[in-house]
Structures are given as C-alpha cells and as structure tokens.
Specification:
single chain; alpha+beta; Arc Repressor Mutant, subunit A; three-stranded mixed beta sheet; DNA-binding transcription factor activity; WH_DNA-bd_sf; metal-binding; transcription cis-regulatory region binding; WH-like_DNA-bd_sf
C-alpha cells in the first residue's frame, strides 16, 4: 500500500515524505471532502503549517482540488484517476445540509457557460445543496 502511495506521488513529481504519504493515505480513505481542520484533528501532533503546505503542494500538482462549499472552510478532495482538474474535468459538488459533508460528483460535469465577449473565465464552481443519500436513508 505504501509503495502504491509513493508511486502516485512520484508520478506527480511530489517527493514522498512521511507526512505526505500519511495525508494521501488519509485522503484516499475519505468518502467526503475534508478541511484543514479535519486533517489537524486526524493528526493530533502534526504542525498546521506542514499540513497546509502538503495540501497546497498536492493541489499545485493536480492530486487534489479545493472546494468552497459556503461553510467558510475550504475543503479538499482527491482528483479522480486521469483527471487533471482542468476546466473540462470540473464536476458538481454537493453539500449536505444535514451532516454538513461535501461530496464530489465526478460523473456530473459542469456545463460550459457562454460569457459575453471580453469576459475571461478563470474558475467555475457548481455547488448543489440538499440532503445526501446517507441522511435520507
């Protein structure tokens, strides 16, 4: 398992340090996106700055993407295999009003938006709010 994680980091040109391997392993186990605070709670003795830098490195290298879900805390989720988090890979996110988890819905792509001439899009985000399947069960 650790060798698999090391390979994943090396493929993205990220040096596989112990903390990076632990964070990647933790992110792979998540069913929903996590915040920096969530990771801090998971790694009690980890330095907040180190965790933040790890997330930023992962984001810059296309391992994870960030999600603004309206809670005031940026959430992070692993990119799907083969996804480069480019505009054509952008997908819908879902925020559950009940459990407050944020989910990636990679099969549901954000449709292309036509903008007036002279407008240059830099980022697109589509967040749907409601009640997730776990909370409606």
């Amino acid at each position: 398992m650790m060798k698999e994680l090391e390979n994943k980091l090396e493929q993205k040109e990220v040096r596989p340090t112990a903390m990076r391997l632990l964070v990647l392993e933790t992110l792979q186990k998540q069913k929903a996106a996590v915040s920096l605070q969530d990771l801090e709670d998971t790694f009690e003795k980890a330095d907040r700055v180190t965790l933040y830098r790890t997330l930023k490195t992962f984001q810059e290298k296309g391992l994870i993407h960030s999600i603004e879900d309206g809670t005031g805390a940026t959430k992070y989720a692993l990119c799907q295999e083969g996804c480069e988090c480019a505009p054509e890979d952008m997908h819908v996110h879902f925020f559950c009003n009940s459990c407050e988890d944020t989910f990636c819905l990679p099969k549901f792509k954000i449709p292309e938006v036509s903008l007036p001439e002279g407008f240059v899009p830099m980022e697109t985000n589509l967040l749907v709010k409601g009640v997730c399947v776990n909370c409606t069960a």
